[in-house]
Design brief:
Length: about 120
């Protein structure tokens, strides 16, 4: 499975961005997909996940109500719509795919990772 993330950029606080993660390869065997982020000097943190089986979603408390993860079957991709962005959302965002877990919040459960896309939110 190959993952290609895009859509990052620089916005002011309160703005919006939509990230996209296009998948290729063994896409039929994905069980769950997710977005993580890593801010400078911090560990990689869970943002949101999507079950490819039940179409369920889960979010980190810090983004709940502001971010939306969704699937686009036609484009074989998942997206992360981010609204009401805050400076603390600044990070490199990574998409990930798991063959075993539907909606894990643990990065160790994801075997495949995209290259990351930078999101910068200024105050």
């Amino acid at each position: 499975v190959q993952l290609q993330a895009s859509g990052g950029g620089s916005v002011q606080a309160g703005g919006s961005l939509t990230l996209s993660c296009v998948t290729s390869g063994r896409t039929f065997s994905r069980t769950g997909m997710a977005w993580f982020r890593q801010a400078p000097g911090k560990e990689r943190a869970f943002v949101a996940s999507f079950s490819m089986i039940g179409n369920h979603t889960t979010y980190a408390d810090s983004v709940k109500g502001r971010f939306t993860i969704s699937k686009d079957n036609a484009k074989n991709s998942i997206s992360l719509q981010m609204t009401s962005l805050k400076p603390e959302d600044t990070a490199v965002y990574y998409c990930a795919a798991s063959m075993l877990f539907e909606m894990s919040r643990a990065s160790r459960d994801y075997e495949y990772w995209g290259q990351g896309t930078q999101v910068t939110v200024s105050s």
